[in-house]
């Protein structure tokens, strides 16, 4: 039976009547809450109250309760970084990441000295090796080539368009190394950590310094994000910066011999030295986890050279991946439960991603694979084994996302200070909150979307 489209008016009308009936005030209060959500599509519903007391006399200065709110709930933004869950909140996360990356490249803002713009800086992309041939799509210039025109072995003579769901799927699933794929994702964070160690060693050796001497004179600062390729494996985009270090640990200009060329030449051999050997979970052999291809591009201001990239382009390029996760490769954007394994195709999961999820689930069995238990592969099966943070940085690279959020919070509190019937700096505030659910009903979503779309231009 074919499902008929639902008329929005048929949903919105009952929603308005229901809100007007349930709200202790009127519909305008619900509209005001939605407006303050700034486009959030999955708000958190809170139930509770806030009391402001005079700390000296105990006098009640102000009291707020959600009893008189529509449905008895206060709606607040979900703050989810995934664009697949909430595009509006993900856009805030992307913008924060952009400013974090940009501050570490240009300096002069957010606690970063302006001199960093003259330090050696580059964008490094570290990828995983091949675990089997997969269908290929257009290149970075959107040029489509024949996928795998081979005389022998798995072949594909198709020119896949960018939206072809076959891109990233194995040419021969029976020979694809799903175990190695999942375990590589699970160890990607360790591979990155070891890469940093080897990179410092290579730089110190090239400069004729011991490890102690190198750490006293230079600091390797970085910020990176993890991106999922279409084949379901992560690779890292990292902004790497070489700083000088004062005896007090402050950032200063590096010595003249610490150049972009030195940093560029050190990254590929350092990455290729990294190796993690593991016993194979299903046999007597072993697995060797390594990095695959490594790409390095120096960062320069106002460049038009294809071999380099500008600060603004780097910040935008890195930040856009901070709001994406494994769902871009055909998997789920939520944890998997045992009952989900038989329904993955119903959830829109690709065959390749489903095989990876089931492999992670099997490897995560603590009874059959106790040595892999620390990897918590069942908990991270929807991420195809990867359990690291998607956006990380070294301590000295730039500011933090927490600091950026704190600035926004302080701004809002200062803006709302005059509206409060008491001085929050001289009051004892007691709050009691309880989770009341999340998201809109279907009708509320339609009404909220129409409100948000009208305010989009004003919001920008």
Describe the structure.
By secondary structure, the chain is α+β, with helices and mostly antiparallel strands. It contains 11 helices and 12 strands. The chain has helices spanning 8-22, 27-36, 87-106, 178-186, 188-206, 211-217, 260-273, 311-320, 351-363, 401-416, 442-459; strands at residues 44-53, 60-65, 74-76, 121-126, 218-228, 234-245, 251-252, 276-279, 286-289, 294-298, 391-393, 428-438. Strands 4, 5, 6, 7, 10 and 11 form a 6-stranded antiparallel beta sheet that branches. Strands 1, 2, 3 and 12 form a 4-stranded antiparallel beta sheet that branches. Strands 8-9 form a two-stranded antiparallel sheet. A hairpin with a 6-residue loop joins strand 8 and strand 9. It is globular, with a radius of gyration of 26 Å. Mean pLDDT is 87; it is low at 1-6.
């Amino acid at each position: 039976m074919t499902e008929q489209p639902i008329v929005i008016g048929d949903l919105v009308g009952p929603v308005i009547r229901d809100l007007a009936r349930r709200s202790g005030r009127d519909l305008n209060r619900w509209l005001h809450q939605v407006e303050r959500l700034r486009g959030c599509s999955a708000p958190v519903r809170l139930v509770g109250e806030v009391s402001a007391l005079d700390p000296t006399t105990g006098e009640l200065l102000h009291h707020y309760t959600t009893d008189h709110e529509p449905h008895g709930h206060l709606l607040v933004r979900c703050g989810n970084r995934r664009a697949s869950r909430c595009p509006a909140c993900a856009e805030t996360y992307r913008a924060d990441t952009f400013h974090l990356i940009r501050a570490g490249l240009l300096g002069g803002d957010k606690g970063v000295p302006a001199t960093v713009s003259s330090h050696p800086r580059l964008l490094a992309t570290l990828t995983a090796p091949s675990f089997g041939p997969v269908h290929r799509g257009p290149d970075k210039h959107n040029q489509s080539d024949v996928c795998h025109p081979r005389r022998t072995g798995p072949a594909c003579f198709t020119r896949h368009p960018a939206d072809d769901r076959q891109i990233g799927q194995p040419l021969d699933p029976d020979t694809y190394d799903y175990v190695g794929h999942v375990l590589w994702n699970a160890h990607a964070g360790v591979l990155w950590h070891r890469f940093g160690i080897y990179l410092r060693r290579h730089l110190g050796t090239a400069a004729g310094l011991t490890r102690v001497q190198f750490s006293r004179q230079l600091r390797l600062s970085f910020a990176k994000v993890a991106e999922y390729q279409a084949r379901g494996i992560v690779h890292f985009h990292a902004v790497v910066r070489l700083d000088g270090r004062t005896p007090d640990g402050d950032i200063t200009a590096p010595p003249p011999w610490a150049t972009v060329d030195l940093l560029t030449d050190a990254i590929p051999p350092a990455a290729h030295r990294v190796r993690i050997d593991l016993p194979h979970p299903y046999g007597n052999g072993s697995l060797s986890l390594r990095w695959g291809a490594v790409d390095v591009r120096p960062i320069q201001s106002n460049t038009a050279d294809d071999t380099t990239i500008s600060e603004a382009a780097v910040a935008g390029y890195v930040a856009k991946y901070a709001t994406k996760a494994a769902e871009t490769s055909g998997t789920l954007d939520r944890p998997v439960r045992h009952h989900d394994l038989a329904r993955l195709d119903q959830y829109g999961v690709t065959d390749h991603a489903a095989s990876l999820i089931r492999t992670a689930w099997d490897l995560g069995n603590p009874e059959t694979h106790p040595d892999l238990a620390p990897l918590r592969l069942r908990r991270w099966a929807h991420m195809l084994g990867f359990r690291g943070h998607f956006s990380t940085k070294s301590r000295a690279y730039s500011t933090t996302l927490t600091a950026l959020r704190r600035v926004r919070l302080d701004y809002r509190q200062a803006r709302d200070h005059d509206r409060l019937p008491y001085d929050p700096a001289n009051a004892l505030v007691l709050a009691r909150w309880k989770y009341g659910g999340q998201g809109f009903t279907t009708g509320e979503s339609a009404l909220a979307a129409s409100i948000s779309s009208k305010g989009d231009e004003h919001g920008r």
